[in-house]
Amino acid sequence: MNFDVSPYGAFIWPAYGLTVVVLGGMIVWTLAKWRAAKAKLAALEAKT
Amino acid sequence: MFDWLFRYANPARFMGLSGALLPWLAAATILTIAIGLYLGFSAPPDYQQGRTVLIMFVHVPAASMATMVYFCLAVASLFSLVNRHILADVAARTAAPLGAVFTLLALATGSLWGKPMWGTWWEWDGRMTSTLVQFFLYLGYSALWNAIEDETKAARICAILALVGAVNIPIIKFSVDWWATLHQGESIMSGQVAPVFLAPLLTMMGGYFLLFVTLWLVRIRTMIVERRARSLMQAGAAA
């Protein structure tokens, strides 16, 4: 693997960084919503 | 014709099947993206683009997913309108934020490629403008869902909006043929991409697709659970 991206590092690394942050954020957000929904349903089912 | 689909469109069956599939889908997503990145960073510099070709491996999959997600949203909306199936509403609604994220990523990474290669961050050319329109369609669709309180009414109005917006899919696809502006023409299907670049590109496209399917299933499951919780709360309030 070759990580030498010169002379375009100022464009390539932000593109990859943005991809990691945006896709990572989407994964975290999706999982957080799933866990919250599951916990809420479990609490309601425990009540009834 | 779609009997087999509706058998699995039962929320209880869907939860069972998707729950069994998800760990495999997640593993396949990680593996495919890891292989794609390995192939991408092992590829030589392109004779014209140099190492900026690396941006293509994150930009092209995002752009293709931006359109594919809208296609999924439109098909789900069609089922929602014709069959009035609750899972179709949920599928359409949960696809929209994912599509918006892929579209945003396609626009941003395309801009980061455009500056060193074209000398500009942005140009109002056919492909870029129609992709921006698609981003606003996703936002508008989600905003409309949230603005209408009656879910049945919201589903019908949003499905109509999604189907009207689907006209933008062929515009995005053929914009590079209809208007000879800045964005380059179709290159994957026309065999203009060298195998050394095509392999990481297709692998990353596969990885992004698997990621979308994985997240879409989780989001559909989430909304089904949220609806169950809401029903329980309403039943509790009525008692």
Which labels suit this protein?
heterodimer, A: about 50 residues, mainly alpha, about 0% strand, rod-shaped, B: about 240 residues, Four Helix Bundle (Hemerythrin (Met), subunit A), about 80% helix, globular
Helix content of chain B: over 70%
Share of helix among residues of chain A? over 70%
Shape of chain B: globular
User: What structural class is derived from the secondary structure elements of chain A?
Assistant: mainly alpha
Main pleated-sheet profile of chain B: none
Provide the low-confidence segments of chain A as ranges: none
Major beta sheet summary of chain A: none
Summed over residues and divided by their number, the pLDDT of chain B gives a mean of 91
Mean pLDDT of chain A: 93
* Gyration radius over CA of chain B: 20 Å
Largest interface: A-B, 31 and 36 residues
Q: What's the CATH architecture name of chain B?
A: Up-down Bundle
Total discrete domains of chain B: 1
Helix run count of chain A: 1
Care to count the β-strands of chain B?
0
Order of helices and strands of chain B: HHHHHHHH
C-alpha termini separation of chain B? 42 Å
Structural class of chain B: mainly alpha
Poorly predicted runs of chain B are none
Description:
The complex is a heterodimer of chains A (48) and B (239). With 48 residues, chain A is mostly helical. In chain A, 81% of the residues lie in helices and 0% in strands. Chain A is built from one helix and no strands. The longest helix of chain A is centred in the middle third of the chain and has 39 residues, at 9-47. The radius of gyration of chain A is 20 Å and the shape is rod-shaped. Chain A starts with 8 loop residues before the first helix and ends with a helix. In chain B, helix 3 (53-83) packs antiparallel against helix 4, helix 3 packs parallel to helix 8 (195-238) and helix 4 packs antiparallel against helix 5 (126-147). The radius of gyration of chain B is 20 Å and the shape is globular. Chain B has 239 residues and is mostly helical. In chain B, 81% of the residues lie in helices and 0% in strands. The model of chain B has no long low-confidence stretch (mean pLDDT 91). The termini of chain B are far apart. Chain B has a single domain, classed as Four Helix Bundle (Hemerythrin (Met), subunit A) (Up-down Bundle).
